[in-house]
Each structure stands twice: as structure tokens, then as C-alpha cells.
Write a structure and sequence with these properties.
The chain is an all-alpha fold. Helices cover 68% and strands 0% of the residues.
Amino acid sequence: MEFFPILQIGFLNGWLFFILHVMLQMIHLKLCPKEVVKRLFDRSDWMRKQIIFTVSGKIFGLVNIILIFLTPLKIGAIEFIIGVILFSISQVLLHVAIYNFKRVPLGKPITTGLYKVSRNPQQLSLDIMFLGLCFMIGSWLSIIILMISVTCAHFGILGEEKRLKEQYGESYLEYKKKVPRYLIFF
């Protein structure tokens, strides 16, 4: 691992895996009903603070994507292997989470499947995916940028939880007591 990787345009850069993720995501979303896709990306009732944190996180995420695109993969290194494993796990988790999400009728909280283990399995899987990409390119700078982006996303999720509490009331509070926000410890 190095702090700041050598940037260069190349065929064997991190963009390969990022594009693979985007293609898989597009296929999966095409198989979802339009109402589900709309619900997945609905931000219409977000508060100003939530929007600011989310946009800030997206800006750091974009910087990280650019870094990933322009950095050669560390093929053969142990960090590359760890990254591929994390990336692969994240893709399975993300698609299972979206499948769980689309099976729940509109207007009901999602509490089945991966949502029994994490209240935010989609966000968690995306964070794992980007961590895998950071390992594949072997960059500490990329990991630091990812942590800033994840922190900003966390504050967006806190705002989303307020909305869910208002929308679903006591049933959401009970769900919140039983299921951690991300993983067992958090």
C-alpha cells in the first residue's frame, strides 16, 4: 500500500471493476419495477442539513472514483486479492439487499432478508465495494477519502432515520432497537 499512487491512464486500472459494478447495478435496476427504483432514489423530503452532508459525501466519492479510475490495479499483491474478495462480497450483498427491498410493498418498512441484520445493507455494501476498490489500487489516500465520504453518508442516514420514524412510528422504533444501523457493533 502506498499513500499517493502513481496516476496514469491504463487498461488495467480500477475503472474495470467500477464499470463492472455499474453494469451489474444497471441490469439489476432494469429488472426492478419503476416504483421500486423511484423509492430507492427518492430524496424529496430530505432536510437541508441532510442534503448538504450527502452532497459533500458524493463530492468526496467522486474524487475517489477519479483516483480509482486513474490508478493501476496492484495485480498479484495481497491487497489486490483482499480487494477482489471485498468487492465480490459487496456485489452479492448489494443485489440481495435490492432484491429484499423490491419484495416489500410500497408503504411498508423493509425488515426482511439482509434488513434483519442491518438497517442499511445497501449503503454498507457500497462502502465495502469502495473499500475493496481502494485495496485493489493499494492507496491509503483513497481509503482516507472513502472514510470522509462514508462519514458524510452517515449523517445523511441519520436524517433518513428521522423520516422513517415519522413515517412508520412505533414499528420503526421497535425495528431500530432490534437491528443495528450497519453491523452488529454499530
